[in-house]
Amino acid sequence: MKAIKPTESELEILKILWEQGECTVRQVHEIFAENKEVGYTTTLKLMQIMHSKGLVERDEQQKTHIYRALVSRDKTEKQVLGKLIKDMFDGSAVRMVMQALGSHQASDQELEKIKQLLAELENKK
């Protein structure tokens, strides 16, 4: 399985495509520029690089190219998280979870989901 290695900006663009579906560069740029000071040509260049990396595909049938994500959100999250655990937490998922829960005020709903996941993991043993 080929590792997905998007940069921080590429991840932001992927999030837009995952949420919006197929988009033109202009549509992606309008959302991308809401939170980041970036020019249209920078967004275009990033998306061209992402196309060459195989992160997105583009439909060139019309004058305005339509882009869509080629990688799934779930697969990308797993690979990025795996790299973070390996690089930042010396391979310890426990340390990562403890840090996340210790520095983030989880809602009652989030805590319930965590409990459900732990119960599911226990049942799989």
Automatic annotation (TrEMBL):
Q: What are the UniProt keywords, alphabetically?
A: DNA-binding, Transcription, Transcription regulation
Annotated signal peptide:
none
- What InterPro entries does UniProt report for this protein, alphabetically? BlaI_family (IPR005650), WH-like_DNA-bd_sf (IPR036388), WH_DNA-bd_sf (IPR036390)
Q: Does the keyword Transcription regulation apply?
A: yes
Is the keyword DNA-binding in the record? Answer: yes
Q: Which family does it belong to?
A: Belongs to the BlaI transcriptional regulatory family.
The protein's name is BlaI/MecI/CopY family transcriptional regulator
Instruction: Please name the taxonomic classification of the source.
Output: Bacteria, Pseudomonadati, Bacteroidota, Sphingobacteriia, Sphingobacteriales
